[in-house]
TrEMBL record:
It holds the Pfam family PAS_9. Keywords: Coiled coil, Kinase, Membrane, Phosphoprotein, Transferase, Transmembrane, Transmembrane helix. GO terms for molecular function: phosphorelay sensor kinase activity. The keyword ATP-binding does not apply. This is histidine kinase. Residues 340-367 form a coiled coil. The lineage of its organism: Bacteria, Pseudomonadati, Bacteroidota, Flavobacteriia, Flavobacteriales. Residues 637-861 form the Histidine kinase domain. It comes from Cellulophaga baltica.
Length: 861
C-alpha cells in the first residue's frame, strides 16, 4: 500500500505541487535575501560614497582657505586668484553631488543646507581678506576681523563635517551588520534551494548569475571608491598564538592610498603583519589600542604623528571592529596640521602688525589733529581711455572747516570739480595729475578766496597708493608779511640794498664734556659737530682730548689758557680759535658754554664764513649756498671731465675725416657723420649747461643796461641766420634798466633764436615791444617786489605750440619736437627763465598751434 502510494501519479503531482510550492517559497525567500543583500551592498557603497564626498568637500574648503592665506602672506592679495576660483568651482560640483546623495536623509540634508550657507559665507570672507592695498606692512582692525570671520566659519564647517561623518559612520555600521547577515543567509538558502530543486537549476542559475554580476559590479564600484578616496582604508585580521591570544595583525586589504601617503604598494604589503610594515604601531603603543578595540568590539580613534620611511606624517585613524578583523580608516592630516601651524604663525605676525598699526594710527591721528595744515586724499576718476578727468575726495581733516567753513563730512565723496571748481581752472588740477603720472612730489603756491577772505596756501602733493595726498599750509600771514616787507622796502631802499646780502648761515654743533675725568660715558658730541669736523657721526670717541686734536697747533695754547681760566673761575666760556678738520682744511670755530656739575655743556659754531665774508648780506648767502649745492658737482664734471673727452673726440674725428674719410664705405660715412653730429650736440649741450649753472655765480655787478644796444648786439650775432631765414625784426622803443649785461644779451639771444628757428615759412616777422606796468596791473602769478615792471614782448608768426605746454618749455631738457625735426638742447628757455628770476622778474609764453608765439619778459623798472 505504501509502495503504491509512493508510485502513485497523484503523489508525484502532489510532490510536484509541494516541490513547486516549496521551490516557490524558498525561491521567493532566496530572491528576497539576495535582493536585500544587493540593497545592503548598495547601501554600504552609498554610505562610503557620501563619506568620500563629505571629505572631498571639506578638503576643498581647507584648500580654499590655505590658498587665500598664502596669497596674503606673499603680499599677492588679488580679490580672486586663479587657484582660488578653481577651488570655488570644485566645491560647487562636490556640493551638488553630495546634495543628490543625501536627498533621502532629512538630517543630513539639513546639515548640508547649513553647509551651503557657510560655503557662501566662506567664499565671501576669503574674498574680503584679499581686498587690501598691494604693498601693506600692517593690517587694520577691520582686516583682522575678516580673518577672525574666516576662522569662525571654518570652525563651524568642521563641526558640521563631524556631525555628518558621525551620522554616516553610524549608518555604515548598521548597513554593514545588515550586509553581513544577508551575506551569511543568502549562500545557505541558495545551497538548500539547489539541493532541493535541481530540476530548476537552470532557472535558478540564471537568476543567481545575474545577481552575482550585480554584486560584482557593486564590489567593483566599492573598490573604485576605495581606490579614489583620500582616506587610507585597511583591513586587519588577528594573528593568534597557541593560547588564542592576539599577538599581531595581518593586513588582508589595503587601498591605493597606502601608496600615495606611505609609499607602500598594496600588492606587496597585503598578507604581511602590521608590526613589519607599520612599525610605528609597536613603538608608540598603537598596537594595544588595536588589540583592545578588537577584543572589546568597540570603535577607537587615534590622532598622532608617526615616522614611516624617514618621513613624519600626521594621521587621524578610526578603528572599527568588523567581522573577525579590524577596519582602519586613516586620513593623512599633515597638510592640515602644517596649515594650522602656518595659520597660527600668521596670526601671531598679524597680531604684532596690528599692534604696530594701532600705535602708528594713534600717532598719525594725533599728528593730523594737532597740525594746522589741511590734509586731504584724492582718488583719480578716469574716463574710458584711462585719462584722469577729475578727483574724488576720500579724506580731509578737520582743519578744512577753519579754512572753507565746510566740515569733512560735507566734502567726502564729492568730486573736486563740485567742491572746488576753481581748482580745475587755476592749474592745480594739472599739478595733481602730474603727481599721479610722474610719481614725483609737486609743490606750488596758490591764492584762493574762501568766505570772502583772500588766502594763500603752500601745497605739497605726493602720489600715495592709487591717489594723491595733498597737504596745504596756510601762508596768508607770511604773504601779508611779505607784502608789508615790500612796502617797508620801498621806504628803506638804501637800507635794504645794504642788508639784502647780510644774512649768514650759522653752522653750530653741541657738546658735553667731562673736563676733569674726560669720561667717555659722560661725554657727547652732536652729529652736526662731527660733520663740522668733516667726520662721520661717532667716527671717534666724543671726549674732549680727542676734540683737542683738531685744534690748530698755533691756537692750542690760547685754547687751553681760556679753558683753564673758565674752569678756575667757574665762569662761562666764549672764545674763538682755528681748527684743522679731517680734510686738512682750516676753519674758525667759536666755543660757548657753561659748567654744570663737572661737565662743560655748550655749542660750537663754525664762524669761518663770518670771518671770511662778513660784508656779505644774509639773503645773498642763502642764494649762493643753494646755488652752490645744486651746481657744485655738475660744474666740476662739466668743466673738466666732460669737456676734455668731447674735445678729444672731435679732434680724432677731424683727423679721421682729413686722412681716412674717403676710404670709408657709404654706410661708414653715414655712421661717421652721425658720430660727428652727436659729438657737436654733446659739446653744445655742455656749453649751455655751463651757461645755465653759472647764471647765479656771476661776479658782475648790476649796471645800467640799454636794451636797444642789447638787441642790436643780438641781431649782429645772428646776422647770418636772419639773412638765411629772411625774417623781419621790428623793434619798438626799449628802456634802459639795471641788469647784468651779458645775461640780458643771452636772454634775448635765446628767445630771438627760437623765434627764427620756429618761424613761419612765408613772410616771417619778429616784433619786439615794451610796456611799463604797475605791480597790481600784472595778473601773472609771481612774487612782485617792485612797484612797476617793464613787459618786453617778443612776438613771432611761426609754427606756435599748444598752450598746455607753456610751462613745460621752460624746464630743463624739455622739447616739443624731435631733434630730427629741429635742432636744440632743450636748455635755452630754461636759461631765459633763470636769468629773468635772477633779475627779480618773470617770463611766460602764450601761443596757439600754427598761429605764432608771444614771449613776455617782466623786468623791474
Amino acid at each position: 500500500m505504501a509502495k503504491k502510494l509512493i508510485l502513485s501519479p497523484k503523489l508525484y503531482v502532489v510532490l510536484l505541487i509541494i516541490a513547486a510550492a516549496l521551490l516557490t517559497f524558498i525561491g521567493s525567500i532566496s530572491y528576497k535575501q539576495i535582493s536585500e543583500f544587493k540593497q545592503a551592498a548598495n547601501s554600504v557603497t552609498h554610505t562610503l560614497e557620501v563619506e568620500t564626498e563629505i571629505n572631498n568637500l571639506f578638503a576643498i574648503y581647507s584648500q580654499m582657505e590655505s590658498a587665500q592665506l598664502t596669497n596674503l602672506l606673499r603680499k599677492d592679495t588679488l580679490v580672486t586668484s586663479i587657484s582660488f576660483q578653481k577651488y570655488i568651482d570644485e566645491s560647487k560640483g562636490t556640493f551638488n553631488r553630495l546634495n543628490e546623495l543625501v536627498l533621502d536623509k532629512p538630517i543630513q540634508h539639513t546639515h548640508l543646507t547649513r553647509v551651503g550657507e557657510l560655503q557662501n559665507n566662506l567664499v565671501t570672507a576669503l574674498k574680503a581678506i584679499a581686498i587690501s592695498p598691494k604693498v601693506r606692512l600692517k593690517y587694520s582692525a577691520n582686516e583682522r576681523n575678516k580673518l577672525d570671520e574666516v576662522s569662525h566659519i571654518m570652525a563651524e564647517l568642521n563641526q558640521r563635517k563631524n556631525f555628518m561623518l558621525i551620522k554616516e559612520e553610524k549608518l555604515l555600521k548598521e548597513r554593514k551588520e545588515e550586509f553581513n547577515s544577508y551575506a551569511f543567509l543568502s549562500p545557505f538558502m541558495i545551497l538548500v534551494l539547489g539541493a532541493f530543486a535541481m530540476f530548476v537549476f537552470v532557472l535558478s542559475f540564471i537568476k543567481i548569475n545575474n545577481e552575482r554580476k550585480s554584486r560584482s559590479r557593486a564590489e567593483a564600484f566599492l573598490a573604485n571608491v576605495m581606490a579614489k578616496t583620500e582616506n587610507i582604508v585597511n583591513f586587519y585580521e588577528p594573528i593568534l598564538n597557541e593560547d588564542g591570544e592576539v599577538i599581531d595583525f595581518k593586513l588582508v586589504y589595503a587601498n591605493e592610498r597606502n601608496k600615495i601617503d606611505f609609499g607602500l604598494d598594496p600588492e606587496v604589503i597585503v598578507g604581511q603583519p602590521i608590526s613589519k610594515i607599520f612599525p610605528f604601531t609597536v613603538l608608540n603603543g598603537e598596537y594595544d589600542v588595536l588589540a583592545q578595540s578588537f577584543i572589546d568590539k568597540k570603535e577607537g580613534i587615534l590622532s598622532r604623528q608617526v615616522l614611516l620611511n624617514g618621513k613624519k606624517i600626521w594621521l587621524e585613524s578610526l578603528i572599527r571592529p568588523l567581522n573577525d578583523g579590524l577596519l582602519v580608516i586613516a586620513k593623512n592630516t599633515t597638510h592640515e596640521k602644517e596649515s594650522v601651524a602656518k595659520l597660527n604663525t600668521l596670526n601671531l605676525e598679524l597680531q604684532e602688525q596690528y599692534e604696530e598699526i594701532k600705535e602708528t594710527d594713534e600717532f598719525l591721528q594725533n599728528v593730523i589733529r594737532s597740525t594746522n595744515n589741511v590734509i586731504s586724499y584724492f582718488e583719480p576718476i578716469l574716463d574710458k581711455e584711462g585719462t584722469i578727468i577729475d578727483f574724488s575726495i576720500l579724506y580731509t581733516n578737520e582743519e578744512i572747516k577753519n579754512t572753507t567753513g565746510q566740515s569733512p563730512d560735507e566734502l567726502v565723496q564729492k568730486k573736486i570739480s563740485e567742491a572746488y571748481p576753481f581748482l580745475m581752472e587755476n592749474g592745480v588740477f594739472e599739478f595733481f595729475v602730474e603727481a599721479i603720472l610722474t610719481g614725483k612730489p609737486v609743490e606750488f603756491e596758490r591764492d584762493y578766496i574762501f568766505n570772502g577772505v583772500h588766502m594763500w596756501f603752500d601745497t605739497y602733493a605726493i602720489k600715495t597708493g592709487d591717489g594723491v595726498c595733498v597737504t596745504s599750509k596756510n601762508i596768508s600771514k607770511q604773504k601779508q608779511d611779505e607784502q608789508k616787507i615790500l612796502e617797508v622796502n620801498d621806504q628803506l631802499k638804501i637800507q635794504n640794498a645794504i642788508l639784502r646780502d647780510a644774512k649768514t648761515l650759522a653752522k653750530i654743533g653741541s657738546y658735553r664734556w667731562d673736563i676733569l675725568s674726560d669720561d667717555e660715558d659722560n661725554s657727547e658730541i652732536s652729529d652736526n659737530l662731527y660733520s663740522l669736523l668733516d667726520c662721520e657721526p661717532q667716527e671717534f670717541l666724543p671726549t674732549h682730548e680727542n676734540y683737542k686734536k683738531f685744534i690748530h697747533p698755533e691756537d692750542l695754547a690760547g685754547y687751553k689758557k681760556n679753558l683753564k681760566e673758565a674752569i678756575d673761575k667757574k665762569k662761562s666760556v666764549d672764545f674763538s680759535y682755528r681748527i684743522i678738520n679731517k680734510s686738512r682744511k682750516i676753519k674758525h670755530f667759536r666755543t660757548t658754554g657753561h659748567f654744570q656739575d663737572n661737565a662743560l655743556i655748550g655749542v660750537i659754531q663754525d664762524i669761518s664764513t663770518q670771518i671770511k665774508d662778513a660784508l656779505k648780506l644774509k639773503e645773498k648767502n642763502q642764494e649762493l649756498k643753494r646755488s652752490n649745492e645744486e651746481l657744485e658737482s655738475f660744474n666740476r664734471v662739466a668743466s673738466h671731465d666732460l669737456q676734455e673727452p668731447i674735445r678729444k673726440i672731435q679732434m680724432f674725428i677731424s683727423r679721421i675725416e682729413d686722412s681716412d674719410y674717403e676710404n670709408l664705405s657709404e654706410k661708414g660715412k653715414e655712421f661717421f657723420t652721425k658720430i660727428s653730429s652727436s659729438s657737436e650736440r654733446m659739446r653744445m649741450l655742455i656749453k649751455y649747461l655751463l651757461s645755465y649753472s653759472r647764471i647765479n655765480k656771476t661776479k658782475s655787478e648790476f649796471t645800467s643796461v640799454s636794451l636797444v644796444e642789447i638787441i642790436d648786439k643780438v641781431q649782429e650775432d645772428l646776422e647770418a641766420r636772419i639773412k638765411e631765414s629772411g625774417v623781419e625784426i621790428i623793434v619798438d622803443n626799449l628802456p634802459t634798466l639795471n641788469a647784468v649785461p651779458f645775461q640780458m644779451e643771452q636772454l634775448f639771444n635765446n628767445i630771438i633764436s627760437n623765434a627764427i628757428k620756429y618761424g613761419g615759412k612765408e613772410d616771417p616777422k619778429i616784433i619786439i615791444d615794451c610796456k611799463k606796468l604797475k605791480r597790481n596791473e600784472i595778473p601773472n602769478n609771481f612774487i612782485k617786489k617792485h612797484k612797476s615792471y617793464y613787459r618786453i614782448s617778443i612776438i613771432d608768426n611761426g609754427i606756435g605750440f599748444e598752450q598746455e605746454h607753456a610751462d613745460k618749455i621752460f624746464e630743463l631738457f624739455q622739447r616739443l619736437h624731435q631733434k630730427t625735426e629741429y635742432s636744440g638742447t632743450g636748455i635755452g628757455l630754461a636759461i631765459c627763465k633763470k636769468i629773468a628770476q635772477n633779475h627779480g622778474g618773470h617770463i611766460l609764453a602764450e601761443s596757439a598751434l600754427g598761429k605764432g608765439s608771444t614771449f613776455c619778459v617782466f623786468l623791474p623798472a
